UniProtKB/TrEMBL annotation:
Gene3D superfamilies: Tetracycline Repressor, domain 2. Keywords: DNA-binding. Residues 35-54 bind DNA. Residues 12-72 form the HTH tetR-type domain. This is Transcriptional regulator, TetR family. InterPro entries: Homeodomain-like_sf (IPR009057), HTH_TetR (IPR001647), Tet_transcr_reg_TetR-rel_C_sf (IPR036271), TetR_CgmR_C (IPR041479). The keyword Iron does not apply. It comes from Pedobacter caeni. Pfam families: TetR_C_28 (PF17937), TetR_N (PF00440).
Amino acid sequence: MENPYKRKKEPEANKQLILNTAAEIGATSGWFQVTFQAIADQTGLSKGGIIHHFRNKEELLEELVGQSLAELTEWVIEEKKTSGNHIAPIAFLRFVINKSSDLHYRRTMKVILQAALVNEHYKKMWEDWFTEHITGGSVSDQDINSLIIILVADGLWYADNLGIYGISAEKKEQIINKLLTL
């Protein structure tokens, strides 16, 4: 006789559910509020089931940041294709502006930002990603126009993630157009 209480095992779906829940908790309440118990409470999974996928919170964060950077890479590549502008800093600026209202993007970026703020390892991961996909080298070695665009994109990114300034889409488009004259 089959055990009626046996739950169907879906390891990849459960792992992704854990990552998504951790990202949501981190984005809304801060990374320090992400605990295995909080994830268990929201997902209905047991703490043991979570530990099966991630031995500790650091391993969970490593996977989450890696997944977030991979997703960010896809988005930036898509923005380059869509906009037809292959100059990476401009594509990054357009990406930041075009994605600013996307809640999934904002959650993903908050995870990266929080991780980089609390741990030097994740800051280095972000810097390495940025060097590879946006600057192609040191930010300080960029020409002044590219550096201005990068700093504006960063400012808009931080403002969106912190929920400050409330810059309208129209103003953001004006910013792009002004910068394109550089």
